[in-house]
């Protein structure tokens, strides 16, 4: 009944206006030259299932201002993508993360830093050169970097995306397919791409009771293609125990650690 209520309608319009205003404010902040002042990078541990040791970390952007409070990446990344701002933000986060993780890599040569990359970045012809430049500037080894590309992005038919992935793969950088299982990749497509890792989407781990067969199939398929498998969103011992019974290689999730600031990550 509320739907037809005049006041509810006004309320809805107000909400919409607030949302539009918020998007506008986010865009404005990200357009500033000092956009990075509102951003920080948190790190979430990635654990080797066989040894229970931390073998890497995923860099996750955080955004906070006094006016807007905390803004989740699920909200501001699409705004940045829509307004052509993701390239500079992507470069900033990559550089920041390489600087932050460099000391760890120096003491642990097999440590891998994973950074998320948007489709617009991969479509940009200059992207692979820019990545190389950042690695050079920060003196960060390509072998210790993973770039995470969503499954949706990786199967795009864009030749630009393919070329970038292939060029990056040749530099020694690991390419991971993120949110795997949510797209429609065929074995063939995966085989054609220079991809090294699959990250099983967390929705499958959350509903393991229902998705056991699918998760087993994804792991088997990934293994048959010689890919390393990461399970994301591991929150319980039960989920972990299930994965320990498979050939999954790495796990990530709140059960081990939430994404935390650099200081807290080093303490961990
Ligand atoms: P994603 O790459 O799939 O990252 C995993 C998300 O799951 C993160 O959310 C992480 O905090 C959350 N997570 C980790 N473990 C658990 C768990 O056990 N349970 C649950 N429920 N969630 C867990 P976050 O940090 O909010 O990031 C959301 C998305 O924003 C990321 O999804 C990624 O697509 C995007 N994103 C974040 N940072 C960047 C970035 O630097 N560049 C780009 N292009 N995208 C980014
Ligand atoms: Ca990711
Ligand atoms: Ca993911
Ligand atoms: Ca995601």
UniProtKB/TrEMBL annotation:
The organism's place on the tree of life at top rank: Bacteria
Signal peptide: none
Coiled-coil annotated spans: none
Segments forming domain EAL: 19-268
Entry protein name: GGDEF domain-containing protein
Organism whose genome encodes this protein: Halolactibacillus alkaliphilus
């Amino acid at each position: 009944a509320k739907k037809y209520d005049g006041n509810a309608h006004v309320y809805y319009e107000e909400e919409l206006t607030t949302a539009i205003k918020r998007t506008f404010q986010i865009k404005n902040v990200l357009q500033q030259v000092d956009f990075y002042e509102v951003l920080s990078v948190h790190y979430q541990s990635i654990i080797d299932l066989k040894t229970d040791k931390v073998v890497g970390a995923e860099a996750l952007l955080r955004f906070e201002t006094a006016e807007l409070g905390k803004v989740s990446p699920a909200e501001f990344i699409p705004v940045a993508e829509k307004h052509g701002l993701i390239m500079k933000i992507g470069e900033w986060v990559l550089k920041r993360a390489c600087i932050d993780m460099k000391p760890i890599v120096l003491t642990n040569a097999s440590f891998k830093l994973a950074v998320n990359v948007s489709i617009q970045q991969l479509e940009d012809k200059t992207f692979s050169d820019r990545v190389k430049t950042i690695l050079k500037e920060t003196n960060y080894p390509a072998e210790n970097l993973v770039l995470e590309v969503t499954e949706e992005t990786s199967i795009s038919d864009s030749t630009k995306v393919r070329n970038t992935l292939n060029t990056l793969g040749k530099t020694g950088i690991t390419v991971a397919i993120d949110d795997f299982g949510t797209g429609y990749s065929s074995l063939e497509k995966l085989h054609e791409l220079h991809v090294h890792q699959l990250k099983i989407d967390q929705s499958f781990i959350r509903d393991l009771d229902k998705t056991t067969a699918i998760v087993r199939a994804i792991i088997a398929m990934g293994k048959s293609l010689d890919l390393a498998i990461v399970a994301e969103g591991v929150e319980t011992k039960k989920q972990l125990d299930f994965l320990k019974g498979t050939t999954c290689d790495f796990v990530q999730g709140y059960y081990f650690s939430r994404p935390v600031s650099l200081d807290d990550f080093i303490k961990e």
